Amino acid sequence: MPEASAPIVRIRNLSKAYRRGTQVIPVLTDINFDIARGEFVALMGPSGSGKSTLLNLIAGIDSADQGSIQVGDVEITTLGESDLARWRAGSVGFIFQFYNLIPVLTAYENVELPLLLTHLSRRERSEHVEAVLNVVGLADRMDHYPSQLSGGQQQRVAIARAIVTDPEILVADEPTGDLDRASAEEILQLMDRLVREFGKTVIMVTHDPRAAEKAHLIRHLEKGELSVT
Amino acid sequence: MGIPYSYSFRNLWTRRLTTVLTASGMGLVVFVFAATLMLTEGLEKTLVETGSSDNVVLLRKSANSEVQSGVERDQASLLESQPEIAIGADGRPLLAKELVVLINLKKRVGDKPANVIIRGIDAASLKLRPAVRLKEGRMPRPGSAEVVAGESVAQRFKGCGLGETLRFGMRDWRVVGVFDAGATGFSSEIWGDRDQMMQAFRRPVYSSMIFRLRDTGAFDAYKARVEADPRLTVEAKRETQYYLDQSEAMAKFLRILGLVLTVIFSIGAVIGATITMYAAVANRVTEIGTLRALGFQRKSILASFIIEALLLGLCGGILGIFAASFMQLITISTMNWASFSELAFSFTLNFSIVWKSLLFSAVMGFVGGALPALRASRMNIVEALRAT
Q: Which residues does the UniProt record annotate as the domain ABC transporter (chain A) (predicted)?
């Protein structure tokens, strides 16, 4: 078992560039960065600073050109595509700006989706789904389709989907970007609760200084380089 | 476990109008496919059911049908006395020497002429065809100018109804009965006394002989002996084989025609399905990215879209079969090119056709969905998520 104080995310000498024809556009340059277990980190920076790319790399949905990313005990930059997908299914919870719920599935079925990749029985899945829907306060809306829910409610269902497999880290890309102030506040409080009560590690990309205030640590990215606030 | 089937099904349901339109296009192709098979099946069934495997037909060597055949009287006498022939309850051999002639009659609708088979029958003819039952009137009296008409002929040709009079062989023939021969070729024939007809048509020889085997297993030995006999110029066939041979040319023609039509139409339907599935993929780029981010593998995405395309194809298949099933209500008549006579038959739907049609529709769905599904599975996760 890793020590409680050991970082859950260790990033070393991470670089990433995009290529457009012969042109190489550096996005991240030699990033070194640790995130402690149970920490709520906000990544801020202007558009194009590379914060979403950094988040995608930590979440294992994009590949680095150079450097290493260790999440828990796993060096994810060495994983093949299938192994990476399996790792994501068990270790990462995703929270998106536009919730990204599947419109043809009910709230219950959306939350159940990641559990379909586990070996849990139907009954066990049902117990897990109901438990997390209770955590986000939407147990009474489990049969509703996304279109029957408000933006804030949809984001809460998305958070339930993100935590249902009990992942090590939660990555959130502008989680309040599409919400009104009241709903955004609710979501931020819920994320804060996930950190405090459930010990989750949250890495959030945001433009909103109010959202960033909830974080324990704010990291600024500018032209692909990190600074600490 | 992969992406649940309900995801594919509900996506089709959500795009109901597109689904119905695409499935209808595929349904139309399946309809043509199934209808052609039903037509071929109906033709084969009609001709094959006309025969009985216990019965043997004797024709002149190399004659393809009774119309082209002739059996000399002296040969008939020899053949009559063979030991393989079954004996009826009345102690007489179950054997009939028959005359088959084509005449031209006008149809009730449209006044168009068509060939009809006139069969001169023997006392045993009816016993040899248990499927033939008198429906109205009575059988012709031996030695009289009376005939009975098959139900299909009675309905479709002028002068062939009960009580009506036909003129052929320079004589008038009164229709004294109508017989029901089920879905067999006999329904398209007119039967009368053989000797009267031989006189009327100035025919000195019989067209064919038919008899029931005493032991059905004795056929091969009988055939070998009779066909090797230098006094005889006949060929023996089981009655079922004889009628199957008759249906072969027409069935082959229908099959090829159906196949050509189906292949051409199916190209259009597959393109339709491909467009629909590409649109489905294009509308769900973010969903695909999300599913991949959640940990679903490329093959799960591929399977999910393939299942959706298969479901789309099967919807088309069910629509096509449903529409084609109504074709069973239609009886059509066409020229049987083996005998040059008019033959009435119905579209016949059976389990095999249903199965083949569904398989065909699923294949169309698969072919139409393969490329879009491949595209969906190959999407870059980050780019797909950016499509929001």
A: 9-228
